[in-house]
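Quick illustration for those who missed Monday's session on complexes.
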Amino acid sequence: MATTGTSYKLLAVDDEPMALRMIERVFSAERDVDLRLVTSPAEALEIAEHQDLDVVISDQRMPEMTGLAFLAQLRTCRPRAHLILLTAYPELEVVLHAINSGLVYRFVLKPWDLDDMRVSIRRAMEAKRLADDHERLTAQLSAQFEELVRAERLATIGRLSAGVGHELANAATPLLANVELLADEVARLRELFRKAAQAVDSAFKRESLDQLASVTRALQARKSDALDETLVAVRAAGSQLQLLLQGLKRVGRDAPEPVPCDLNQAVLSSVTLLGHRFKSGIRLERDLSALPAVLGRGSEIAQVVLNLLGNAADAVEGKRVRTVRVRTWEAAGRVHLEVSDTGPGIDPAIRTRLFEPFVSTKEVGRGAGLGLSICKQIVEAHGGSISVESEPGNGARFTVALPAAA
Ligand SMILES: Nc1ncnc2c1ncn2[C@@H]1O[C@H](COP(=O)(O)OP(=O)(O)OP(=O)(O)O)[C@@H](O)[C@H]1O
Ligand SMILES: [Mg+2]
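Prediction with magnesium ion bound:
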């Protein structure tokens, strides 16, 4: 392929040596042309087998075969070469047909003069170079375009799987935390059984009865519904996981029909799921009003509340006053949810990008910066909006508004 800076590869075939010598004269002073001259089409085909060619010039009338027959054969091994035919007037019709069928690039009528020949061949060489450049650039462009499409597809898959992983972790973390609590409760019950068995084995000796009584009292002193609460939280986490997995199975299919959902219910199940965090000294204030239903997908609405409450719990960590407040109300045909906290407020550095994916001020491993982008996507898919108010040092207040079902 001739590209800028390399010489043009030119091959001329004519059974008359005299004609070849004239072609040689045309290019004797031109340094950018690498010219080969042969008297036989067979020899020319042999050369074409092994060498790239930009332009091939052939006489039409040769004893071995016609120029057109030769060029047709040459075309099969050098399809990109530009072909020029030297012909006499009586054969013009045949040659025109060859030009129209795309075989021959141009013809030169005999007898030709040196300057005309130089111009004809120059044009052919330049056209060939332009065609090569065009092909190279087109190939480059299409490779770059494919690379872009691939990168975008990978980025989309990356975002998608990061988002899915984030929400699965939101449900799996409470599940594991509550299973640990459950294990503690089971250990206490085992101890109670052991003491009871010892009492039976010792035929209710005083000492073993005292031990049984002390274990029983310790259990009674615990909040009697601790075990129930833990069980409820395990079930809630399990069913949130199940809903997310059902959602995953539906990926690529049409979204399921929205059904009437209760936002308060989503708040309650999220509070249950995050119970393990609110037990550790964070005060949770609830102010829930009776609400009309919202049309939507329950597990997604729970995801929104879960992310906002999780962020609020993160925000108050290490603060002297650790309060998270969740409020719901209805106004103007919309159902509202507000989650506020006594944390440090939104970092001004990320204020304008808060709802974009992968924006986080948390340390690696604690925050992927996905929660709020997922919230925004879900809320908007439900025809609602999400906003935030915050003053540095004065906590943050997130508000979600969703259209109430008619
Ligand atoms: N209640 C809040 N108070 C202060 N800053 C907040 C609050 N909620 C969110 N932010 C800020 O917004 C950032 C983005 O929140 P987002 O929930 O999208 O991601 P994340 O919590 O950092 O990580 P992830 O949710 O993926 O675990 C947080 O890193 C934090 O800086
Ligand atoms: Mg978050």
